[in-house]
Amino acid sequence: MTTASDFFQVSCPNDHLVRVPAGLAGEELVCPQCSGRFIANAADSVEAGEERLERAARQWLWVAVAAAALLVTAGFGAFLAGMLS
Length: 85
Ligand SMILES: [Zn+2]
Fold this sequence. Notes:
Shape: rod-shaped
Bound molecules: zinc ion
Number of helices: 1
Number of domains: 2
Helix content: 40-55%
Number of strands: 4
Distance between the termini: 70 Å
Largest sheet: 2 strands, antiparallel
Low-confidence stretches: none
Mean pLDDT: 91
Structural class: alpha+beta
């Protein structure tokens, strides 16, 4: 059975996207387009980069939500304080 995770994509030194079988991770490969040599590092793959971006985006979302919640709480507190005084 072939799944998407059997391959990952890395950029060669000349920015060609090369599809690499997962079994060749960590091996030195030759780019089919420019014959440039590079190490097929799964951590440098397009997929890993996208995952990092998604995680960073999610973190920023939580920071924004937390900041908004804090502002609402502070605003409500100020409103209550204004009502009581
Ligand atoms: Zn290349």
